[in-house]
Amino acid sequence: MALSTLAWVTMGLSLLVLPGVATAILVRSMRSEDRKLELLERQDNIDSYSPRALQELREWIQTNPNDPYAPEARARYNECVRTLRAVDEPYYDWSPEQIENLETIDE
Amino acid sequence: MGDTEARTAREEWGSRFGFLMALVGAMVGAGNIWRMPFTTGQNGGGAFLVAYVLLLYLVAVPGLMAETMIGRYTNNGVIGAFNQVLGSKRARGLGLVVLLVNVALMSYYSPIIGWALYYAGHSLLGTFTQAGFQPQAFWNGFIGNTALVVGMHTLTMAGLAGVLVFGIRRGIERVVKWMIPLLVFALVAVAIRGVTLPGGMEGLAFVFTPDWEYLTRGSMWVAALSQALFSTGLGWGIALTYGSYLGRYDDVPLGGGMFTAIGNTSIGLLAVFATFPVVFAFGLEPTAGSNLLFISLAEVFPELPGGAAWAAVFFVSFFFATFTSGLGITEVGVTTVSEETRLSRTGSVLAVCGTIWLFGLPSAYSSSFLGQMDFIFGSFGLPLATLSIIALVAWKFGPERARVIDLNRNAGVYVGRWWNPVVKYVIPVVMVFILGYGVVTNIGTDNQTLTIVGVALMAALVVASVAVMSVVGDPQDDRPGAASKGGD
Fold first, then answer.
1. How far is B395 from chain A (nearest CA, A)?
2. Are B240 and B389 contacting, i.e. CB atoms less than 8 angstroms apart?
3. Shortest CB distance from B249 goes to which of A6, A40, A68?
4. What is the mean pLDDT of each run of 10 residues along chain B (488 residues)?
5. Could you tell me which chain A residue has the CA closest to the CA of B483?
6. Residues A40, B396: contact at Cβ < 8 Å?
7. Sign of the CA dihedral B289, B295, B296, B300?
8. Cβ neighbours of residue A38 under 8 Å, at least 6 residues apart?
9. Do B485 and A64 make contact, defined as CB atoms within 8 angstroms?
């Protein structure tokens, strides 16, 4: 029995959005891990947040200065800023200008 | 912080690949191999897959991100995580609920792993291709031999203990790093053999030809929701526990969320390819559930060229799928007991495995009892555990706080604000709906008594767990404090 065109399309899409995506994620995850390890071996530290994630963290800290978790958030924010200033090559896609403009937050 | 020393001494995964395989291996179990194919076939084939994939991405992926994240953030097992975030003695009872549901789940899952082990062993011995082999008689002879079934249950728990005693890196990781790739290769090999059989393509036509009319049926959406949530193991405490062994530079959303949910479902899809062509090629009943595996498929292997090898590939890979799930479910208890008591890792493994073995004896003795346990804990226990863990992140820690402070830290993929309402509203509503739907649809049926017992048992479990934890131990004092609007 031959498959209908619709069945072929459904099967193809299922393979694409499940095993296809899973394989792509696995490859991406392994590659990013390799890169993290390489950077850690070379410079002993890597930045923890992407530009967008760090910006959101800063906004959250400013919006919730008295939140019980704010001290930890500030510590994580400042640690990332200091790391970005110290390392030669950031893990995330940070430009030198972006790093230059970063400021730590009073803890 | 009081637990600094414990944190720095805490074991971590040895490799990214090991963590990913362990998590996927824990979530891929018997349900993926025998439930996913016939649920797909019963609910409109391609239409079900469309609904399922939609719900997988919408609900399961964000939920697993939340659960793995709270594990990495707290660096604790289930009770420790609840303790750290909630900081109240009574609230830790919800952590105990998750633990007890896991122990109960494992008590009847261990005999099933034992069945898989028995069939894997016989497939290697070539039993299924011997002259005069009768699959129904073989199954009846096995399941009716109490000593044999209890023996396989015992062997299973001994095997799990033998791996878990070596810990995360030298135990679980070492095993799953080869078991899961072998499982995938085996399913692919059986699938290729299946679709090349005369009539095999009919199985694929049955599964992948969409019947769009099913998209208007509520029962199909409930089936898709249940499969998306339960086959991914969301909220069982496994992702939380495995996530607690991640290092500070590890990613959560890409691996713990996306890969776990999608990788797990991919193996379910491979199981569809591996079983349905064979089922249709030999005219078997596709909705036969566990019978399909242990009786029907055992019957067709002798008829295949090289049938002994194919039987071995299939049943050994099925055993791998169940065994790696057993490792994950049991580790939830081992991690928690080793953290909350003075027992060493070895002592915790022996205590947890011994308890599961003991409580598993009735299920090993009686398949009927096993079925009742599966109904009660599958229908009510697991949704309760999921609701507890998601509520911890969504309603106490707070999704926005979780997202900006921890989820996007060292993340391989950025998670936007869309995640907050999904975790806070969508997943809890879905879980409550599934719980309610299960109760309503079973009232007035043969399962009414079991439904009432299940609901009463879960209510008693919550009350008893909260009562026990309110008098046992001291809550940690190092949590940042009560939740505020920063979490929303």
1. 15
2. yes
3. A40
4. 50 94 92 77 82 88 96 94 86 91 95 95 92 88 94 98 96 95 91 87 86 84 80 91 94 94 91 86 72 77 83 91 96 95 95 97 92 87 91 94 96 96 93 84 85 92 91 59 59
5. A68
6. no
7. positive
8. none
9. yes
Does the pTM surpass 0.90? The reply is yes
Question: Is residue B60 a contact partner of residue B229, using CB atoms and an 8 Å limit?
Answer: yes
How far apart, in whole angstroms, are the C-alpha atoms of residue B207 and residue B32? 15
* Cβ <8 Å between B269 and A19: yes
B289-302 per-position pLDDT tens digit: 666 778 877 878 87
* Distance separating alpha carbons of residues B395 and B389, to the nearest angstrom: 10
Q: Decide if B443 contacts B284 (C-beta within 8 A).
A: no
- Chain A interface, mutation test: which of B21, B55, B195, B249, most A Cβ atoms within 10 Å? B249
With contact defined as beta carbons under 8 Å apart, do B62 and B427 qualify? yes
Among B1, B16, B176, the residue to mutate for chain A (most A Cβ within 10 A): B16
Structure tokens at B317: 């890979």
- Tokens coding B319: 């055993």
| DSSP reduced 3-state for B200 | helix
| pLDDT value of position B475 | 53
The tokens for B104 are 């109960």
